[in-house]
Amino acid sequence: MKTVFERPKSLRERLMHYCPGCTHGIAHRLVAEAIDELGLQDDTIGVASVGCSVLSYAYFDCDFQQAAHGRAAAVATGIKRVHPHKFVFTYQGDGDLASIGTAEIVHAAMRDEKISVIFINNAIYGMTGGQMAPTTLIAQKTTTSPEGRQAEHTGQPILVSEMLAQLRGNAYIVRASLHDPKHVIRAKKAILKAFRHQVEGKGFSMVELLSTCPTNWAMKPTEAVKWLEENMLPYYRLGEIRTPEGVD
Known about the structure:
Helix content is 36%, strand content 17%. The protein contains nine helices and eight strands. The protein has an eight-stranded mixed β-sheet, with helices on both faces.
C-alpha cells in the first residue's frame, strides 16, 4: 500500500500537550514539513518562546534553544551571527512576541537579521489563564477584560505585521490562517516562502498565523474556528504584508 500521509521527519513521535482544538499542532506540522522539504533538518536551530509553545523544543527533531520570555528574536539573532550558515527560526505566541518581546522583534526586523519567525496570534494569553493580549480584539472578553476590550482604556489591537512592514530592508512578512484546510494549505506555502527567504540570504522573515484558543475563548473547537473566521479575519487581513520590494 502506498503511503500518502506520514509524520514529518522533523517532528518527533510523541503526544502534544496542547488543548483539544488548538491549532498549535497544525502549525508545528507545517513548520516541520517545510524544514523537511527544504532539506534543513540537520542545519536547523529553533528557538522556543515562553507561552503555550514553551515545550516546542520537545516536538521538533532538531537543535533547539529555550529563550527567556520575549527574548526569542534576540537569542535567534545571536545564534545566527555565531552560526551564519545555520537555518534559525523562532516559534512565538502573541503574548511573548507582541508584549514583553516587542522591542526584540522590532529591532531584529529593523536590522534585517537573517532569521525566520513563526508568530502565533490567537488574540489572547493562553498559558497564563486567558488574559487580554496586545492582539485581543475590541469587545473581546478575557479574564482581565470581562466586559470586553475597550479602546478608550487599552487602545486598539496591535497589528504587528503591519508595524514591522514599515521598517526599511529586505524583510518578508506574511499573515496566514489555520482555521480551515484551504487556509492551512496557503499557510504552508507562506512558511516555505519565508524559510526560503532566509536560505537565500535575503534577510528577516515572519509568518503570522491566526490561530484558535478554544479553552480560553470558552468555546467548542468548531465554535472557535467560526469565531476566528468571523472576527479575526476582518481585522487581521491575510496575505503578504511586506516583500523585499516594499509594503503591499
